[in-house]
Write a structure and sequence with these properties.
Elements (H helix, E strand, L loop, with lengths): L1 H8 L7 H42 L1 H6 L3 H50 L4 H12 L1 H29 L22 E8 L9 E8 L4 E6 L2 H8 L7 E6 L2 E2 L5 H5 L2 E4 L10 H5 L7 H10 L3 H7 L17 H15 L3 E5 L7 H14 L4 E5 L11 E6 L2 E6 L1 H5 L10 H15 L1
Parallel strand pairs: 3-8, 3-9, 6-7, 7-8
Antiparallel strand pairs: 1-2, 1-4, 4-5, 9-10
Helix pairs in contact: 1-5, 2-4, 2-6, 4-5, 4-6, 10-12, 12-13
Membrane topology: Multi-pass membrane protein
Keywords: ATP-binding, Membrane, Nucleotide-binding, Transmembrane, Transmembrane helix, Transport
GO molecular function: ABC-type transporter activity; ATP binding; ATP hydrolysis activity
Length: about 425
């Protein structure tokens, strides 16, 4: 608008527009290229600061116990220094942009003044042209910075579009299982092979076992977590498959498969919602049924007496308004209510107190006896009462038999006695500790 008004006041000004636009375009191109890179560096150097403070606040007691306050403080200061350097460079190029635009506008005003003097224009027209030329500087700087901000924010839009166009997770499913499936909980792993990337080694290497219904299986060794991932199809096998009651799990929709599996994780997973939602997220059961399972895990009295809102009590982030033991018992109650025939347990008692440990072990033995239970073991003592123990090494089945049979082997004589050797080493470690 300033150029148009100045051109109407003195047409000779329009002769200077083209070289001005060329200089402005060059400065804009340099600034936007640098700004884009610096914005990316700012995000890259800022994220470690937040992660560091999150670790610092969650581990304050440990940091104080080992007297590492100075080390953590120096680490935070180093990260802040790196991010500050990026911010200072960004401010520097912003000042460079301002100087460049001011220089271009100053040259334009000077050239306009010369043209008007030598080509003799009226005083009013010359004054109007010069006054509008001086207004260009702020407008041009604002336009360039707005372009940079727009490009920066459009990066988020690009990511949203990228996620939107991602292919759907898994195929739609080739078969629809019966409503009551599975009825027995029998599982078969047939020549199962899986890996996380095509160029990586197999994490599951030819798993070929059969688990009868209602058996309790303990797992140990390398590859045990990968086996859980393949059951939920978070890790898709590239060869072989898993059958549940004779149905190939790879032929099912993900929602149908995962709806039939229950898991009690090592770290309790709770949502920032009501207690009722955390136990029955699909709202399939009555309040009485929910209170029944809470009674089994001995939380019913706490809900009635200590929680004024009862089942409508709102859970804080990660269940922080409940203890770790109570949070894990809520997860057990959720698995009880779900009543699926397959239960996966990832060392559910590793981070709870001894009394809660005993209660969870009792519930697993008594209330899940009609289900097939697969337990990941970090402490071998927790799986000695299982029907069978599966020992994996580098994704291969090394041993699969009853605990008594595995412990009866002599590792000094039998090189395949992996579980007996692991158990002896664990016993020695416990004695020394």
């Amino acid at each position: 608008m300033s150029v148009i008004v100045a051109g109407l006041a003195s047409p000779w000004v329009l002769l200077l527009v083209l070289p001005t636009l060329v200089g402005f375009a060059w400065g804009c191109r340099v600034f936007l290229a640098s700004s884009r890179t610096l914005k990316r560096l700012d995000g890259t150097t800022r994220s470690p600061i937040f992660a560091h403070f999150s670790v610092l606040f969650s581990g304050l007691s440990t940091i104080r116990a080992y007297n590492k306050q100075e080390m953590m403080l120096n680490g935070a200061l180093d990260m802040v220094d790196v991010n500050t350097r990026v911010c200072l460079i960004f401010e520097a190029i912003s000042r460079w942009l301002g100087f460049t635009v001011d220089l271009i506008v100053t040259l334009l005003v000077f050239s306009t003044a010369l043209l008007c003097v030598y080509l003799s224009g009226s005083g009013g027209a010359v004054g109007l042209a010069l006054s509008y030329m001086t207004m260009l500087s702020a407008g041009l700087q604002w336009a360039v910075r707005l372009s940079a901000e727009l490009e920066s924010h459009m990066t988020s839009v690009e990511r949203i579009l990228e996620y939107k166009n991602l292919p759907p997770e898994g195929h739609p499913g080739r078969i629809q299982p019966p409503q009551e499936w599975p009825t027995t909980g029998k599982m078969e792993f047939k020549h199962l092979r899986a890996r996380y990337r095509e160029h990586l080694e197999d994490v599951l290497n030819g798993i070929n076992i059969s688990i009868p219904s209602c058996q309790k299986i303990g797992r140990t060794g390398s590859g045990k977590s990968s086996l859980f991932l393949t059951m939920f199809r978070l890790l898709e096998p590239y060869q072989g498959h898993i059958e549940l009651d004779g149905v190939n799990c790879s032929d099912l929709r993900l929602s149908d498969l995962r709806a039939k599996l229950s898991i009690i994780p090592q770290e309790p997973v709770l949502f920032t919602e009501t207690l009722r939602y955390n136990i029955d997220p699909m709202h399939l059961y009555t309040d009485q049924q929910i209170m029944d399972v809470l009674s089994i895990v001995q939380l019913d009295d706490m809900v009635r007496e200590q929680l004024p809102d009862g089942l409508d009590t709102h859970m804080a982030e990660q269940g922080s308004n409940f203890s770790v033991g109570e949070s894990q018992l809520i997860c057990v109650a959720r698995a009880l209510l779900h009543s699926s025939k397959i239960l996966l347990v990832d060392e559910a008692t590793s981070s709870v107190d001894p009394l809660t440990d005993l209660l969870i072990q009792k519930v697993l033995r008594e209330k899940f006896k009609d289900r097939t239970v697969l337990t990941i073991a970090h402490r071998l003592q927790t799986i000695l009462d299982c029907d069978k123990i599966l020992v994996l090494s580098s994704g291969k089945v090394v041993e699969f038999d009853a605990p008594k049979i595995l412990l009866s082997k002599n590792p000094n004589v039998d090189p395949t006695a992996v579980f007996a050797l692991m158990y002896r080493e664990a016993q020695k470690h416990n004695k020394h500790s």
